Every structure is written in structure tokens, then in C-alpha cells.
Amino acid sequence: MNENINLLMNHRSIRKFEDKLLTREQIEVIVKCAQSAATSSFIQAYSIIGVTDKDKKMKLSELAGNQSYVANNGHFFVFCADLSRHEQIGEMENKDLIPSIESTEKFMVALIDTALAAQNAAIAAESLGLGICYIGGIRNNLDEVSKLLKTPKRVLPLFGLAVGYPAQMTDKKPRLPLEHVYHENEYRQNNEEYRNQLQLYNNIISEYYVARTNGERNDTWTSQMANMLEKQSRMYMKEFVQKTGMDLK
Amino acid sequence: MNENINLLMNHRSIRKFEDKLLTREQIEVIVKCAQSAATSSFIQAYSIIGVTDKDKKMKLSELAGNQSYVANNGHFFVFCADLSRHEQIGEMENKDLIPSIESTEKFMVALIDTALAAQNAAIAAESLGLGICYIGGIRNNLDEVSKLLKTPKRVLPLFGLAVGYPAQMTDKKPRLPLEHVYHENEYRQNNEEYRNQLQLYNNIISEYYVARTNGERNDTWTSQMANMLEKQSRMYMKEFVQKTGMDLK
After folding, report:
1. pLDDT tops 90 at residue B204
2. Contact yes or no for A100/B229 (Cβ under 8 A)
């Protein structure tokens, strides 16, 4: 075990921040760490938009489902999958890169690249004593978000990252049992074992909620997941992604 | 600056490893760190397959384009986007989750979740003095890879992560200028400035190659990208993803 491992293992999302902005230096360190992540074939298929304008932050907060910590934080980053510069490169180098740019494969590459960079940013921030929260809620209404941030064609805002000085303590939620997530040499498919693991995990999660809410909440992981996934959310996504010019071909 | 920042900033891919396996403890620490990453609405939509069987590693190495370090390393992880357990949860909880599971939105969520977890694994490994290399090459032939690893429906192998004791020193490749990747409040779209930044970066990358290859290689970033993207690769991906049961609806 070492300091880095401790930091990784102790992640929890922070949803309340002190009224104190990050310094320019902190922001640049976080972005440079993001850029240091591995990138598929060196493609660097992302851009990061820092939002400092108060009105824009308020508007983003509304769009993300009225999450106050989207407006109130030390800095708000929006991570975008970005193949627009590769389109420009096609023009500069006089080559037709559009079939690649519009492929499902490169859409996946851009998403993965963006997420790897974002996770480095998150860890860099946490190592500076800051708290973070990923904001998938910006995908509630990407039409409005992309207008607000003026993202061009082939740029897809994926998620926000609220960063700031923590003004709350939160507990770490227990994850799925390691043996449920980690397989060796092949994917185990023993349904009975699988469901037993899920039941075991349900007990852990239920106890976690009971202890933290004086018994007011006792839901299991599988019931949480079923309720969340039963509601069909963001079903406009395919159409939006294609409109943005990542065509899922 | 701190130890964590140093670690993040000093990442480089390692493609040659000593003949020494990771211990069970190292593997478990790496997986636990992966699991500690943020996960969208707690969905935990990934699985990790560790490959230790020598024949399987050889076969994966071939499938990934004859990359020897896929076979020869301390441990080989395959990170998979996984919505299969959520399908089972639908059965357990008696709810129809299929429209969600087959949506483009949840496909994106699963990819992002998997990449965040993988980047934590990569950093954990590097903090233990190990080197890492992401292997997107497994996507060259996912049909064979998924047969080899027996991944069920709704599980999509995304990339490998070769981990081991470094047997080479490599240099860190300079990333795009920060001001090219980082925007504030809105996405800047000044094409002239944009192309100037790319030219500047081209010079940096070209000098980087010249210095490291005794002048044998001097390609620019934009030419590299144009050559890479001009070749249409893995155009079967959409069909495969849909066959796997992440239907991009």
C-alpha cells in the first residue's frame, strides 16, 4: 500500500463545496494531469471546457436537474469527446477522414479517451485535497448544453466534473464483491453463484443505508438498479450523437 | 505538486516487461482501486477478466496484431463494458430493463464507467512501480476475443491492460498544447488560431521523433493522425456491438 493507492481507494463523491475558487495553477495542473493519461493511438480525442461564468453555471445546474453543486463549487469542468480537430486535420492534410470519424469504433475511442483523461483530472484534484463529483446530468439536455458552451460539430459534451474544497464528509459506498466483477481466463457464468453474490451484496448495501439514515432507507442494490433502469432516460441520445456528427456508422 | 501529481504526469506506455508475474495481492489491490472509481448512478457497468493462461495470452497477442507484450507481461487484464448483470437484475426484480440496456445512453454509460475504472487500475499499477500499456488492439477481432474469454451477451470487451515490471525506459510524448485542449466558458472556434496551434505542436512532435530516432523519423502529429484515420479500421464495430446486445437504440 502507498499514498496513491490510499487516495484511489478513498474516493467518494462530494456534493457540497466551500465558497472558494480554484487557482489558475490548480486548474492547469489538473488539466495537465488529464492530458497525461494514455490516449488511443495518440489520438487525443477530447476537449475540456472550464466554466467560470456564474450565469452559465446556474443554467448548467438547472439543465443537469437542479443540482446546486453544479453552480456552487471551486471550478466546473465539462469533458467533451472531440473529433472536430481530426476533421480539420483531414482538410490540412488533404485526406478523407470522415468515414473513420463517423464510425462507431472512433466514437468509442473518443469516449474512452475522454474518460481516461477525466479520471486523471479527478485523481489530481483529490490529491490536492479537493473533492469531486462527476455530473452525468448534463446529458439530460445536450441540445441546450452544447448551445450554452458553443460546442461545434463532432464535439459531444459527455459529463461535468465539479471540483472544490469539500464542505461535507461522505461515506464510501461499498462496491460489488471483487469476485463478482473480476474473472480469470474466462467470464464465469454460474447463474446461481451470480445471484447469491448479488444477494450478499444487497445485504451489505441495505445495511449501509440503514446505518446512515437511521433506518429510513434500506433499499438494496438490485432494487435501486431496477428502479433506475426501468425509467427510460435520455432516449434521445442516439439521434443527438448522430446530429453532432459522430454518426455511429 | 505532490507524489500523486508526479505519478500522473509521468505516465508513459511500457511495451516490454520482465518475466515476473504479479502477486495475487497486487492483482487484488489493482482491481479494488479500479472498483473505487466513480460510477454513473452506482451502475458499476463493467467486468474485468484477468488472463493468466499462456495459450490464451498467446492467442490474444495474435488477435491484437502480434503485440508480444500482450503475451509477455506480469498480468493481462481485459476490461469489458458489462450490462449483463443488469439484465439479470431485471429478471430478479421483475422489471423490464431491456429498453434502457439497449439504449445508446446506457452504452455510453457502460463505456465511461469501464474507462474510469481502468484508469484507476493503471494508476494503481504505476504507483506500485509497475508499467502499463492499454491494448485497443483486442478490438481488431472481438468475435474471436469474446469466444476466447467466453463473454456472454451484453458484455463487450473494450481494451486490454498489460501490466508488469518495466524492462525498458520510454520517453513521455508531449501532449497537445494546453490552450488547444482547454477552453473557458465556451468552445473557441478561431480556425486560424487553431491551425497555428496545430502547426506549433507539429514542430514539437517532429523534433521529438528526430531526437529519439537519430533523424530517421520526423513525422508530425497531424500527418500521423491523417494516416491513421485514413485507413478505415474496425468498421464492423457497430454490427458487433449490436450483436452483443448493446443495441445503440
Report:
1. yes
2. yes
CA-CA distance, B154 to B137, in Å (whole number)?
Answer: 20
The amino acid at residue B204 is I
Give the number of beta-carbon pairs within 8 Å between A and B: 350
Verify whether the Cβ–Cβ distance B182 to A5 is below 8 Å: no
Whether the CB-CB separation of A70 and A162 falls below 8 Å is answered with: yes
Q: Are residues A74 and A157 in the same domain?
A: yes
Cβ-defined contact of A119 to B124 (cutoff 8 Å) = no
**Do B119 and B57 share a domain, yes or no?**
yes
Q: B234 with A105: CB under 8 angstroms?
A: yes
Residues A111 and A145 in one domain: yes
Contact A122 B224 (CB under 8 A): no
Claim to verify: residue B120 and residue B202 sit in the same structural domain: no
Q: How many domains does chain B have?
A: 2
- A156: β partners: A81
Using alpha carbons, select from B197, B182, B38 the residue that is nearest to residue A52.
B182
Kindly determine whether residue A225 and residue B43, on different chains, have CB atoms separated by under 8 Å: yes
Closest alpha carbon to B206 in B191, B198, B217: B217
Query: Are residues B164 and B238 both part of a single domain?
Result: yes
Domain identity same for B183 and B163: no
For residue A13, give the nearest of A118, A131, A159, A117 by alpha carbon. A131
Give the CA radius of gyration of chain B: 20
Q: What is the pLDDT of residue B77?
A: 98
Same domain, A158 and A198: no
**Nearest in space to B160 (alpha carbons), one of B149, B171, B170, B176:** B149
Beta pairing partners, B186 = B184
- Residue B109 sits in a domain whose CATH number is 3.40.109.10
Residues B126 and B8 in one domain: yes
User: Domain containing B19: what range?
Assistant: 3-170+233-244
Quote ipTM for the complex.
0.98
Average pLDDT over residues B124-145: 98
Residues in chain A closer than 8 A to B9 (CB atoms):
32-33, 36
The pLDDT of residue A136: 98
Q: What is the pLDDT of residue A190?
A: 86
> Is residue A122 included in any domain, yes or no?
yes
